[in-house]
Amino acid sequence: MKHEDFLKELRQDPEYVAAEAELKPILDIANAVLRLRLAKGWSQSELARRAGTKQANISKLENGLGNPTLDFLRRVAKALDTDLSIQFERPEAVDAQRVVLVQEIRMVNPEQVWGSASKRSEVVSWSWSSSCLPQVDADLQYEAA
To answer: Are the C-beta atoms of 75 and 48 separated by less than 8 Å?
Structure first.
């Protein structure tokens, strides 16, 4: 059985879904720390030394075990030269996958806005998902009159 199929089967079980949701915050932290540590090429011992803790504490954190304090997470973030950000979010109404919205805006002629003599109009398109800011794709270079 493929891993993806196994996960799909597990996610049919309401108890598994509830447990996964409950553990998500600590597992997200674990994944972020692991990813950042590996990107720097550090061992758990090196990160522990820089954060002023023991290697076993880094191992517990990266494995989603324990209940790290805010102070501990701040020290780990500082050692990794990154900011610690804690957010409270409402659960998404849409399950599992991110929602991507695509919009199109037809720009008015610049002279209507800035009094320019140019007759150009542009189409600006962007998309965004629940996890990122809008990505704008346009080349608009107008000067105010």
So the answer is: no
Both tokens of 35, joined, read 């990813």
- What's the one-letter identity of residue 79? A
Please give the backbone phi and psi of residue 67, each rounded to the nearest 5 degrees, phi first. -140, 85
Other Cβ atoms less than 10 A from the Cβ of 71: the count is: 8
Instruction: Report which DSSP code applies to 66.
Output: S
The model's pLDDT over 52-100, given as tens digits with 9 standing for 90+, comes to 999 999 999 999 998 899 999 999 999 999 999 888 877 665 454 444 4
Give just the sign of the alpha carbon dihedral 68, 73, 74, 78: positive
119: tokens are 């007759």
**Cα 134 to Cα 48: distance, rounded to the nearest angstrom:** 37
Amino acid at 35: R
CA separation, residue 7 to residues 1, 4, 13, 22, 92 (Å): 10, 5, 10, 17, 20
